[in-house]
Amino acid sequence: MFNLTYLLLSLIVLINGEYYESCIKPNHITLSFDDGIHKNTQGLVDVLNNYGIKAIFFINGLHIVRNNDFETVVKQMNIDGHTIGSHTFSHEAMEKLNGFNVMRELYDNELIFRELFNVRPRYFRAPYFSYNDEIYNTITYNFGYDFIGTNVMPPDWTGISAQEIVDFMVNKLVTESTTGKITLQHDKMINNIEALEMFIEYGMANNYTFVSLAECLGHTTSYIEDNKYGPNLNTGININ
Fold first, then answer.
1. Closest CA to 143 of 164, 163, 123, 159
2. Handedness of CA 87, 102, 233, 14 (dihedral sign)
3. Domain CATH code at residue 183
4. Is the CB of residue 84 less than 8 Å from the CB of residue 74?
5. Exposed, middle or buried, 129 (CB in 10 Å: 0-12/13-18/19+)?
6. What is the distance between the terminal CA atoms of the chain, rounded to a whole angstrom?
7. Is residue 38 a contact partner of residue 197, using CB atoms and an 8 Å limit?
8. pLDDT in tens, 15-46
9. Which of 48, 61, 83, 199 is surrounded by the most beta carbons within 10 Å?
10. Domains in the chain: how many in total?
11. What is the C-alpha separation between 35 and 59, in angstroms, rounded?
């Protein structure tokens, strides 16, 4: 019965999403952050707001469920003009999940977006970049998300210093100068707050422009506002 239901859900068609990992213009940089909301997120937002730069934060809804204070933070981030993207609900490696639980992770995070912003997320990044062709199709075809990669990802999770983070990112700018950049850092790594300010200062001094992800990709909207979910997991499936 489940297989039949999953097949029927797979026939639901929304706007197909696409894969992106760089900006259109070579001098554009979009700053992105994964795994929030975290206690360090506000520090990153404060730096961004001081410079008038709009970033994208790929969030896990479970953090908001567990800490009501984060709801206020993410709402203000949205008001400030930062984009909120989906990073699944609980940050599971998606290749380890069955088809139903892959959709459950996406759907549960949509519930957070609808409750907080009354929109659906447009931009998605997979935790650990764990996905395969079937998962990619679920994300871009069934849910209609744009799948966002990166071309600048310092190994901040190893505990490297702020200077080492910046050196890695600057090296990418210098050695791969023909493509615009979508960076990836992690909210929870405390050194990213200092590194962020240093990197912004370098970028501004070297004629780079920091832009929102929508501007980076030439999009006019940052969310899906069709008032539809992806596959409706409340229909025909017993989740208990």
1. 123
2. positive
3. 3.20.20.370
4. yes
5. middle
6. 15
7. no
8. 689 999 999 999 999 999 999 999 999 999 99
9. 199
10. 1
11. 6
